[in-house]
């Protein structure tokens, strides 16, 4: 794998296995408002475009459901209180970040997860390794728009030259394309290789160590 100077990571499905806590948050809101529960595999299909889109897919009728706003608020409150009950870094991730840091690389996280949760999870799991963490904010268009990556580069004080984006979804592939930087697609996350390839992915890794080359 090529050696880059700046590594920008997605969070859910790339650095952290968050799916069970996300599913618990969704079903907490579903229970509270008498809506059908979802399996972990359902939630796995729903994620990738931010938590509002996750809840639009989970709530029957989406935003047209009269209880949507309340269910969405319920999910956010529960998830902020339980965002790492079962969440952990994927095997090899901490070792990867330690080695990248030792090599003097710039490291950022760019996620469609809401800003507070992105910040909290990065503080909890990756303090000292991640230089910049960007989550969904009102003034920045979420991925696949390039805005959040551009903001991360600005905060790092670097350009997109010799930067790479690393993620597990079709949204990440499109984000990298919209930023004009390469994308490494990981195969331990929420999407499989065939799905990613159909959506334009062309560079894959099966373990974090492969990112180091």
UniProtKB/TrEMBL annotation:
Catalytic activity: 2-phosphoglycolate + H2O = glycolate + phosphate
GO molecular function, one term: hydrolase activity
Entry EC no(s): 3.1.3.18
Keywords for the protein's UniProt record, in alphabetical order: Hydrolase
Tagged with keyword Phosphoprotein: no
Metabolic or biological pathway: Organic acid metabolism; glycolate biosynthesis; glycolate from 2-phosphoglycolate: step 1/1
Pfam families from the UniProt entry: HAD_2
Keyword Nucleotide-binding: no
InterPro entries per record: HAD-like_hydrolase_sf (IPR050155), HAD-like_sf (IPR036412), HAD-SF_hydro_IA (IPR006439), HAD-SF_hydro_IIIA (IPR006549), HAD_2 (IPR041492), HAD_sf (IPR023214), PGP-like_dom2 (IPR023198)
UniProt cross-references to SUPFAM superfamilies, sorted A to Z: HAD-like
NCBIfam families: HAD-SF-IA-v1, HAD-SF-IA-v3, HAD-SF-IIIA
Protein family: Belongs to the HAD-like hydrolase superfamily. CbbY/CbbZ/Gph/YieH family.
Name by which UniProt lists this protein: phosphoglycolate phosphatase
Organism: Xylanibacter muris
